[in-house]
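Internal tracking record. Fields below are filled automatically when a chain is submitted to the structure queue. Please do not edit lines marked as system-generated. If the sequence contains nonstandard residues, flag them in the REMARKS field before resubmitting.
Queue: standard
Priority: normal
Entity type: single polypeptide chain
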Amino acid sequence: MQIEGSKYFKIGELANLVNMSPRTIRYYEEIGLLYHVKRIEGGKRVYTSEDYQRLKFITRLKDLGLALSEMHELENIYKIHRTSRKVLTRVLELLDNHALKIDERVNNLIKLKADILNYQEKIRQKLQTEDG
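SYSTEM-GENERATED OUTPUT FOLLOWS
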């Protein structure tokens, strides 16, 4: 869809491009992660390439484990400082935190696996004792 020389997307088109549902896009708009959505006559929403980029960024942050509340925090930082530098610094801090949590979970899973293998061996020994 072309409007005034710029590329605009209907919600269905945008949803397909970013691989999310129109409902999710509307939800992100409702909670303030997607803002300044343009409307054309009749109040119908249209989305820009900037909205597309923003949704791709949100998707990437979500894939990396950030919560919507953390994304709101990043949005607030940007609104206050109007610079990506502050936002990216905070993204690094959040990702460091998430990486540490993942390391902790991995270590717990390794310990759990060792416990399972140990317990399996005890059961095997007990079965051999009872059979022998």
